[in-house]
Amino acid sequence: MRELQATLGKIEVALGTISDAIVWTDQLGQIQWCNKPFDDLVGNPHILNLGKSLVERLPLHEHGTRLPDQGHPVNLILQGKKNIEGYYEFVGGAKKAYLEFLGRYQEMPGSGESAVVVLRDITEEKNLEQIKLQSAALNRAANAIAITDNQGAVIWVNQSFTELTGYSLEDVYSRKLNILKSGQHDQSFYRNLWDTILAGEVWEGETVNRKKDKSLYVEQQTITPVMDGNGKISHFIAIKQDISQRKKTEEELEVYRTRLEKMVAEKTRELEAAQLELVNRAMEAGMSQMAAIGLHNIGNAITPLNVLTDKMKSRELETMSRLLHKCHDDLKGHADDLGEYVSAGQRGRQVFDYMGELIDSLRAYDKKQFDMFEKMETALAYISQILTLHQFYASGSQEIKELVDLNNMLEDAISLQMGALEKRQINIKRSLAEPLPKLLIDKNRLMQVIVNLIKNSCEAIESHQSAPQDKVIEIKTFTQNHQIGFEIVDSGIGVNPAEIDTIFKLGKSKKGSTGFGLYYCKMFVEKCNGKLIFFSRGLGKGASVRVAFDESGGHHE
Fold this sequence. Notes:
By secondary structure, this protein is an alpha+beta fold. The protein has four domains: 2-131, Beta-Lactamase, CATH 3.30.450; 142-242, Beta-Lactamase; 251-392; 400-553, 2-Layer Sandwich (Heat Shock Protein 90), CATH 3.30.565. It is 48% helix and 24% strand. The protein has helices at residues 2-17, 36-42, 46-49, 54-57, 73-80, 128-140, 159-165, 169-172, 187-198, 244-312, 316-333, 338-343, 346-393, 406-416, 418-423, 443-464, 517-527; strands spanning 21-25, 31-34, 60-62, 65-66, 84-92, 95-108, 112-121, 144-149, 154-157, 203-210, 216-227, 233-242, 401-404, 427-431, 439-442, 472-480, 483-490, 530-535, 543-550. Strands 2-1-7-6-5-3-4 form a seven-stranded antiparallel beta sheet, sandwiched between helices. The chain has a five-stranded antiparallel beta sheet with strand order 9-8-12-11-10, with helices on both faces. It has a five-stranded mixed beta sheet with strand order 14-16-17-19-18, covered by helices on one side. It is rod-shaped, with a radius of gyration of 56 Å.
């Protein structure tokens, strides 16, 4: 017995000389034995430490936050019957130390459960600054950070977590973070979250959670699994950022975007209405243009009528009448000796010569008068035709669709512009498909388009200043690939291919004369589910305009 006591005494002296603090407790966490370095660490005499709670004598902090009693590693050893290692801060009065903690769970025969703890003061070690820096960084991070065990129970949170949620470490220690649930997410949402992190993968997403004061907030959360040396999940680290304000801003922006889209749609409708009105006005302007063309052609027809009328006012017939009257007087004055007068007298013989010339002159005059009357009749018929066509096509701005023969429309348009074509010595070549299905369309506006296109070709040819035999406009009609249309090909000045797109822009006109332009022609054609394609190989190489209407866009007979 004395030998055993002597041996235990020696062991206690030996353990007392070790610089590390050593302590063991019973199953309740009360100190059963400790060495002198432990007494020195906690600042109490040895006799006052025995029988006291180790948790009370050794309060520990982790990353600047005091661990609650249930989270103290000694209680975790005894409750979990497991070993724990880690680094903690000890604050006892004015004393502060950084400790390396090594705890072991023990079951001793006859004395039950106990915890054996070895504490090493590492305050002066080289890696202390790094530990302090990491601790400070975690605790003062702007983002909320929570660390849980592999079951999701919280073992530590930083200050930002408390500021974000209102929960302190004491409030959430050993509890799961489902205390933050708001009810805004279904079970499949959380099932997916857990399936992801339990598979060792990082989960990222937005979560609507509820604070301690019951208010809701939105957080951007990243949960990262932490593996131990055996490749098994030991902890989870959740990093949270409050994005409530950002979501609110996004919602406000979405409201503004929706409102803006409505405004844009409304303005677009207004612009389309204004554009339609502009087109209608342009169509009316096109009607005026048609009227101008008609009046121009009427003027061309009236001019020769005036000339013919002036010729008919000639005194030529009066002169022949006077000469006939003179011949009559001469013959009457020699009625008694008429035979001798006309046979022997020189004067008498001249009378018969004059009468023969007069008869020939009367015959020529009669023919000339007949020719003039024919020309006048032709001119009057042409004027009547122009007026009829003008009244037929210029019936107003209201859209009235009817079945039309495209070939007849083109012939009518050529007739309307015949005066300008003849004046410029432009030859018209026709290549009209027969039979051609009828097209359901606004006849008046289509006529304006055709007239305008032919007029543009005339002006392009005049700008080219080519020889008369080279002044040609070819007009074709076609039906192919479920399309009906026409093409106008001219030998005019042409267009630089790089500038083709610009000629369709409103107000773009190198001539500066029509006020109608290809822009309106194109708009009308596209409005009727058709396509207008302008093509030119370049300056001096002529141009073509192809207009095609899709059968699916209208009715064809």
